[in-house]
Amino acid sequence: MQWSKSYGLHLNPTKTQVLIFGTSSMLSRIDWTNLQSVCVDGVPLTYSSCAKNLGIYIDQTFSWTKQIEEVRKKVFAAGSSLRRLSNFLPVPTKQVLAQSLLMSILDYADICYLDITEEQLNKLERMQNYAIRFIFGLRKYDHVSEYRKKLNWLTIRKRRDMHVLCLLYRILFDHTTPSYLKKRFIFLGASHELDLRSIDNLLLFMPLHTTKTYSNSFSVHAVRLWNSLPIMIRKAQSLSSFKYKLKNLFLQD
Fold it and tell me: What PANTHER family would the database entry show (predicted)?
């Protein structure tokens, strides 16, 4: 609360929740009936298993189950409204609608939950396929791979990787990026007195990670993707050039 006040923010106790994070086995050992109450400004807060912050649902185990389910609901709700018009609209118009009303839901804050399972990624892939079927009027079990290529769309996995890398590019080369983000990423040899080749190659130092959770974090996953890029892409002179070269690379895979 003091931190919020120092930045001119007001913390509303009635809209504040308490989450205890941990593994399922650790949480099962908690005696919830005898937990000490947490108060803000004299108001006791409610213990929750899941909370929404800026449109993202965070649960106690970071399973992202609730988040994926909410994304699914939003995509199919928007899609059901669009399908009423599918027979009256040309393909280019449907593509614009799908991109702005369906894919935007899948793209929103997708780099915040990089540690989702393959099963959850497959669910997101099916939602993208749903958008492709709407555009081309395909049936439920029609294959969509060739139609995705016609749209020049990336798969969900490549799409998320592209968002990660574009954010990392801005962090590295945009002078307006907050310092607390910049200091998380260090070029190899940047602190060395010698003129090392790794500096010219723009390779990043890989943070030491020993857990799967940290390995899937943005700080590690972004560096892993960045260092695997061809040097010509890492040396792109602008964000637009970086995006163009990166997408072409991913479309070739």
Answer: REVERSE TRANSCRIPTASE DOMAIN-CONTAINING PROTEIN
Instruction: Tell me if 36 sits within 8 A of 46, measured CB to CB.
Output: no
- Evaluate whether 201 touches 227 at the Cβ level (below 8 Å): no
Tokens representing 27 are 């949480």
CA neighbours closer than 13 Å in the CB half-sphere of residue 249 = 20
The values of phi and psi at residue 17, to 5°, are -125, 160
The overall pTM is greater than 0.70: yes
Backbone Cα Rg of the chain = 22
- Helix (H) or strand (E) run with residue 47 in it: strand 46-47
- β-strands 46-47, 17-18: how paired? parallel
- Choose among 44, 36, 4, 40: nearest CA to 20: 36
The string of pLDDT tens digits covering residues 78-128 is 999 898 888 889 999 999 999 999 999 999 999 999 999 999 999 999 999
Interhelix angle 118-136/156-173, nearest 10 degrees: 100
**All residues at 6 or more sequence positions from 193 whose CB lies less than 8 Å from its CB, including other chains:** none
74 bridge partner residues = none
Place of tokens 């592209």: 162
